[in-house]
Amino acid sequence: MSTNITSTQEMLAAAVAARGAEDPELVSIKRVLKLLDKTAKSNRTYGSTNPVALKFSQQFYEELTTHLTIYGKLSVLVQRTALLYKEHVVYQEEQDGGGESMAFKLYADGIRELALQQGLTQEDLGFFLASLWGGLDPTKDDDDIVTRIWGRNLSTISIVTAEEVATASVGHEGFVRLDSSLSFSDATLRELLDREKTRSKQPSEEGSDGGSGKVSSPQDRRPQTGHLGYEVTEEELATLAKEIEAESHRDSLSYILDALTAILASETSPTLLTKLVGLWGHIIEALLREGKWTVLENVLSLLHETDAVRPDLSEEHKQQLLSIVNGLGRTERIKAIETYLNRSPDANIEGLSTILLLMKPDAVPSLCTLLANLTSLAHQAIVGDALTVLAKDHPDPVLRGLLDRRPVYVRNLLSILMKWNNPKFVESIEKLIRYPDAQVRREVVRAIGRLRPNGSGVKLLPLISDSDENVRFSALKLLISGHYTVPFVQWSPLLSDDGFLDRPISERRAVFQAMRVTCGDEGVPYWQELLTAWAWTNRRKREELAVLAAETLGKLATPTAIAALERGSKKGSASVRQACTVALTHTAKHNRQQPSSTQTPDGEPS
């Protein structure tokens, strides 16, 4: 033990240097009390037999034993929110600590000084911890720390109560006040009380027994009957009122979950554990029905960490817990989410995304159904984001959903597929080019452009005849981009259709430009025929088409295109000849302006 004491003293000396000459005893007391707080709370939460609680208890006992070996005792004055030693705060209630303070617990039970003496055994320490937070004898309705400690009559643990101080203060005005000013630097409160008791008894004792003194025993220090109080400041009353108010408004669900958590952490009966684990499954379903997403997230986190808190759980109970967590995405549970969200379109959805992402991939079909049935766009977005993650390696339910007749649902699925950005899905998307809803068809064009940005554009041609103008121009825009090829033979059905002449001139111009980019010289014979053909019907529209042909050939500017323009400038109608001449002039001017670097070694444009 001497070696341990020496090393501890060295550690305390180092702590003193780091803290600017702080008393080593103060450093030791603070560390011991901090461990006491952790130990008491772990015993209260998990039970004294839990491995976590046992670890803290052993560590606290070792630190306390070392301190008592060096200093003989550990004595602190108790205030409502702090513990003091020689007017120094050695323990302070944490701000928003989330639980009952050790100082307040001692203070509320009437303790004004606590002293632990050298020789304290581990059994005595266990009794003290059990007294501090209850749990000694479940058959007794006794929550009073003072009564428990007096009943055990331990020589290594002594306390001073508010009643003792009040009794000693009667007739001695100013002896001590039980308020926030309570502090002593020269002696402990017990020593002061014993001195006062000895002083007050001296006259009577000298007269009755010849002046012989009488040493007070622990039994003499027991509180006497009667009701005595202590002063509470207005500030303390206000603080107590706020705490009571906050406690009264605490969600009852939190109390229930805290109780179940404590049972899960400490229960040893296999039968009761089986029932308890089954109860957690019902809790999860209830939280889903009520939309308590953040609470459910905490519950699932707790169940995930049960192994760490209860390493002694049987394999059967571990599998039971695992089944509950993994069964989060069961069809009936996702149906409960759907019912709640559609019933409460403006409900708080904080934490919902986390809950969905905790589900396993086998929940993907049910999540697709949920996405299809939800009425709120905001809710659909959350489920869509979850499916983007969960269904990436299991896309079949999403692809099957493209055949659904609900356009909003199909658009959401297309959005998921575009986020995956996988070209292998483009064939499934191209099957929707004749989908009844125009917005879906617009999304199809966008998806094709994203997933197949180049190559054959044949699958886009049906969209150029779409009934929706936006769909037609979206498809033409892709073809004009220069990244697709379409043989002229694929354009022929569109060009020969009688309705083509009735389209707006801007649209016919866009079609010709798409042809120029996708099939090049293959379209020259068609355009040349437009330049030279004599129109007997729809003469005005056909001349418009011929003028557009001349414009297109001028932009094509290949030798074949230039030859067609020269022929049209001689054999076409007046308006056509003029259009061909203008196109040839622009082409010649453009070729003259081309820098030499754009010419190939053969003199042809590169």
What is the overall silhouette?
elongated
The largest beta-sheet arranges its strands as 3-2-1-4-5
Q: β content, as a range?
A: 5-15%
How many beta-strand segments? 7
Rg over CA atoms? 44 Å
The computed structural class is: mainly alpha
Ends distance:
93 Å
- Biggest sheet descriptor: 5 strands, antiparallel
Number of helices, counting only DSSP H or I runs of 4 residues or more: 30
State the oligomer.
single chain
Q: Can you offer a commentary on this structure?
A:
The protein has 606 residues and is mainly alpha-helical. The chain has four domains: 2-206 and 217-221, no CATH class; 252-376, no CATH class; 395-486, Leucine-rich Repeat Variant; 490-606. Helix content is 62%, strand content 5%. It has a five-stranded antiparallel beta sheet with strand order 3-2-1-4-5. Strand 2 and strand 3 form a beta hairpin.
Features:
606 residues; mainly alpha; Leucine-rich Repeat Variant; 4 domains; five-stranded antiparallel sheet; two-stranded parallel ribbon; 30 helices; disordered C terminus
